[in-house]
Fold:
Amino acid sequence: MNNTDQCRAIEELNPLCQILLNKALRDIKASGINPLIVETYRSQVRQNYLYSLGRTVKGTKVTWTQVSIHTKRNAIDLVPQRKIDGKMTAIWNAQDKETKKIIAIMIGYGFEAGANWSTSPDSPHFQIKGVSATSKSFGSTNTNVYITKMIQNALNDKIKVGLIDDGKWGSNTTKAVNIFRSQFKWKEDGKVGVETLKKLLG
Ligand SMILES: [Zn+2]
Structure:
């Protein structure tokens, strides 16, 4: 694979991001939509190459940044595809009904949707910002408003703690995570790692 080629492999994403994406894809397919993963991990070399298009290299501009969450293994470009005139066609339209359904499902799993950005909206783009490429858990210092909200809702669902799902990870969220973890006799470190996330969403 050339280092400017596009990567579609889910396995190249951060392990936490993989769990969330796989859950979302299951729900997307269950609602009758055929999702197309356009891109997952992107090397910095490819990001720089994309940035050069329409600038130092001839072509149309395709990106506005050299700093992308794709390089941090926490972003996915995802669109619906369906048969149009007998041909499977990717739908690149933020107003499309299936696109909107994908956006709603992805947000439910803690992804920030590029479609909702007020400046330069990026409809196929979904990301988990503020979490490193190699991070093994979400926690008070390693999260963002969308992930925190998803975790608060999952905790409310599983252990009926009545957390306010405000997306702010305070002491009540940490306490609830520890109550949840204690059920499995896991160390009460206030973190949601791979196993905790699987149990929370299972
Ligand atoms: Zn993207």
About this structure: The domain at 10-127 is CATH 3.30.1380.10 (Muramoyl-pentapeptide Carboxypeptidase; domain 2). The chain has a mean pLDDT of 96. The first strand starts at residue 34 and ends at 39.
